[in-house]
Design goal:
Two copies of one chain form a homodimer. By secondary structure, chain A is mainly alpha-helical. Chain A contains eleven helices and no strands. Chain A folds into two domains: 48 residues, Arc Repressor Mutant, subunit A (Orthogonal Bundle); 122 residues, Tetracycline Repressor, domain 2 (Orthogonal Bundle), CATH 1.10.357. The termini of chain A are far apart.
Amino acid sequence: MRYDSDHKARTRKKVLDEAAKAIREEGPHRVGVAGVMSRAGLTHGGFYAHFASKEDFIAEAIAHMFEGGPTAKLEKMKGLPPREALIDYIDFYLSPRHRDSRVSGCPLPYLAVDIPRLTEAARQSYVQGVRHLTDVIAAHLSALGRGRADEEVASVLAELVGAVMLARAEPDAARSDALLVRCRSELKRRLDLETAH
Amino acid sequence: MRYDSDHKARTRKKVLDEAAKAIREEGPHRVGVAGVMSRAGLTHGGFYAHFASKEDFIAEAIAHMFEGGPTAKLEKMKGLPPREALIDYIDFYLSPRHRDSRVSGCPLPYLAVDIPRLTEAARQSYVQGVRHLTDVIAAHLSALGRGRADEEVASVLAELVGAVMLARAEPDAARSDALLVRCRSELKRRLDLETAH
DNA sequence: CTTATAATATTATGACTATCATATTTTCAA
DNA sequence: TTGAAAATATGATAGTCATAATATTATAAG
């Protein structure tokens, strides 16, 4: 071979990185081949040397979103005592910073609505991500001695995802902040995670 | 005038009805002028006799979504005793029927993700819809004698919206149903709405 | 330094889109 | 029944998109 052995692989990763950001900003259907390639410092010509089709590309980009940085926070949870881990995660997930992060951030709220409109491959990536997050949270709830962890985790995840989406849709910053604060405190209250007394 | 005095108004309504359905099915950016006009039994030519631009059209269609049928359920809530109203609404919102309703159904979960990408006019319609639903639920929570209704309503709304979205994203029917059941029962439990004992 | 080839760029094509100018149809009033 | 105007249709234009064929560049091996 003439180029570096992983030259193409690095380019591919760069393109997928940009795609993941663009999907968060514009949604999976509005990202264009030429746009993403350009953001990655390339022209659109080489696209089909990397991906079979745009559909395939979007599915790969979505899988990529679940591998990247946003999962780091989740992995860190595993090493912490359950109470601390849950408090940390709720505070992170419902933080203004996470709400405003338009290029990283958990894929779940970004993609939920479009998942039924995407390919089977994209759906599978999404489902895996949901299962993973569900399992980690449920494990910590169980470790805390909560008997109905399996029931509770559905409700907790729904509130996390719904709150981030509604906070992003609220243009009034103060109201958006208030929504996050309220959901944070309600979540901790109903999971008996309050730090005081 | 030569045509019936409200001929144009009826056509306009028909077009907006179809647009509202199409937005739920495909998202606000993927609905096309020609497609919606065709669904309404017209050709694309007359479009600009009804709307100034596509952006304006989408904003009007979104406003229309909040006026139509899906709000009926909400209005019915107002006439019921608070406990019954809340139980009814939760059971409706988190029903498989509402999850599967791809042409009617509450606009909140359908639009949340796209709202930051739409015009100011569209955002304002959405915000009004959120406020309205928030107020009605909060009023019923207060009527039930719950002191922290303003805090709770944010959490409840987030869970309702998030649960519907996640249920729609879950391709496994049994798992999707289970998610809805769990959120229904968790919501009623934490709001002390359980019917038994 | 040369050459082969992998990686990327240039350019082209056809499908689709919003928009608009113009033509045609519809139907009330006379 | 006819004329006029309102409502809608036909057809065109310019732009964008995914896709692909071909050309060019970059670089590791000889």
